[in-house]
Write a structure and sequence with these properties.
The complex is a heterodimer of chains A (104) and B (160). By secondary structure, chain A is of the alpha+beta class. Chain A has a single domain, classed as Beta-grasp domain (Ubiquitin-like (UB roll), Roll), CATH 3.10.20. Chain A is built from 2 helices and 6 strands. Chain A has a 5-stranded mixed β-sheet, covered by helices on one side. The mean pLDDT of chain A is 90. By secondary structure, chain B is α/β, with parallel strands linked by helices. Chain B has a single domain, classed as Cytidine Deaminase, domain 2 (3-Layer(aba) Sandwich). In chain B, 21% of the residues lie in helices and 36% in strands. In chain B, strands 2, 3, 5, 6, 7, 8 and 10 form a 7-stranded mixed β-sheet that branches. The longest helix of chain B is centred in the first third of the chain and has 14 residues. Chain B is globular. Classes of the chains: A alpha+beta (104), B alpha/beta (160). At the A-B interface, strand 5, strand 6 and helix 2 of A face strand 4, helix 2, strand 5 and helix 3 of B.
């Protein structure tokens, strides 16, 4: 079962520079585990030590934000396309306050 | 160095003025590999905050896909600070996820004169770069301060 995954520039150091890679899995969590076997360290940039998705990474299955599909439990089917984008965020707010507010 | 058309500079500053006192944010796309920002895309600040900005996740996907389809990349990623200087905060540095982009900061803290500065943010290291504005009109509606030198449009800064 092949899932196409689009990798953002900042994470291509894990994929040998590849912009699009293929993985397998019935769920997003399964896919990330499968990818991490080939691209060691990639999963750790997307999933917190507690096992949730990082607040400031956006992952989409086809046209949907996975936050609305069950996050790591989001179901995948053959031919789905997964897109990873680092959130574009920032601002004058102090980092400690932003971290507290947004749970990073 | 960031080279950018004066009409785009004006559009970015107008966007920042319009959303003041909330922070405004957006992108200027350009042909991949050109380093030339040509297509201004104002984005929604999903945080709607005076001290924080975040792209709306669905708009982010749509705009990034569109750039991909057009063989473009985000040449400039900009946002405004509305009460402080146009310099990346620790928060900005921590979240900077596009190492190839010019991070432009606009400050609207002064009603009369906008600050417009450009930075590279790579692996947590901030480097300010000169801004060259091309196609400037003779009679600008708004006065700008580029970098630290209010009197000049082009300026050099060390290490560029």
């Amino acid at each position: 079962m092949a899932i196409e995954v689009r990798v953002p520039t900042i994470l291509r150091s894990y994929t040998g520079g590849a912009k699009v890679v293929e993985g397998a899995g019935d769920t997003l969590g399964g896919l990330l585990t499968d990818l991490d076997a080939k691209y060691s360290g990639l999963r750790g940039r997307l999933v917190t030590p507690e096992g949730g998705l990082h607040r400031f990474v956006n992952i989409y299955v086809n046209d949907e934000d996975v936050r609305f599909l069950g996050s790591l439990d989001a179901k995948l089917s053959d031919g789905d396309a997964v897109t990873i984008l680092p959130a574009v965020a920032g601002g004058a707010l102090g980092f400690a306050a932003a971290a507290a507010l947004f749970g990073r | 160095m960031l080279t950018i058309d004066s009409a785009i500079v004006e559009a970015i500053v107008a966007h920042a003025r319009r959303d003041h006192p909330d922070e405004a944010c957006g992108v200027v796309a350009g042909p991949a590999g050109s380093d030339l920002p040509t297509r201004h895309i104002p984005m929604v600040n999903a945080a709607r905050s005076m001290t924080f900005y975040e792209f709306d996740s669905m708009e982010h996907l749509r705009v990034w896909r569109e750039m991909d389809d057009r063989d473009e990349e985000p040449v400039v990623i900009y946002h405004s600070h509305t009460a402080t200087e146009a310099y990346p905060s620790r928060t900005d540095i921590s979240f900077a996820g596009e190492p190839g982009a010019h991070y432009v900061l606009v400050s609207t803290r002064d009603d009369e004169r906008a600050e417009f500065r450009s930075f590279r943010i790579v692996d947590g290291v901030v480097t300010e770069e000169p801004v060259t504005v091309v196609g400037a009109t003779v009679d600008p509606v708004q006065s700008y301060m580029f970098g630290q030198s209010p009197a000049t449009v082009d300026y050099e800064c060390s290490g560029s």
